[in-house]
Design brief:
single chain; mainly alpha; 69% helix; 0% strand; elongated
Length: 111
């Protein structure tokens, strides 16, 4: 996260561009052991991103997402999705039990 924070600090300063050198300088000033590959990846990922727009969009969505109103179609759809996910999880559990019963699970490899 500190890499993203460094980019946000540089974005807010308006004096400095978000470059590898500037991100590295901010991180080093904060006492972070900088990994050059992570800095390069961050710069590449932010190449076509409008940070101001991304921050505005993130601020518009409450943490955890918006809860649909009771009785709304969205709420019904979400419940249906939850039911589908629960059924898929049950199916996965059944598959796991079959693997354990047949002795093909990872536990058999390690005793």
């Amino acid at each position: 996260m500190e890499y993203i924070y460094a980019a946000l600090i540089l974005n807010e300063s308006d004096d400095e561009d978000i470059t590898e050198e500037n991100v590295t300088a901010v991180l080093e000033a904060a006492g972070v052991d900088v990994e050059e590959s992570r800095v390069k990846a961050l710069i590449a990922a932010l190449e076509d991103v409008d940070i101001e727009e991304a921050v505005e969009q993130a601020a518009a969505v409450p943490a955890g997402g918006a809860a649909p109103a009771a009785g709304s179609d969205e709420g019904d759809a979400a419940d249906a999705d939850d039911d589908d996910e629960a059924e898929a999880a049950d199916a996965d559990d059944d598959d796991d039990e079959e693997e354990e019963a047949s002795g093909e699970g990872l536990g058999q490899l390690f005793g």
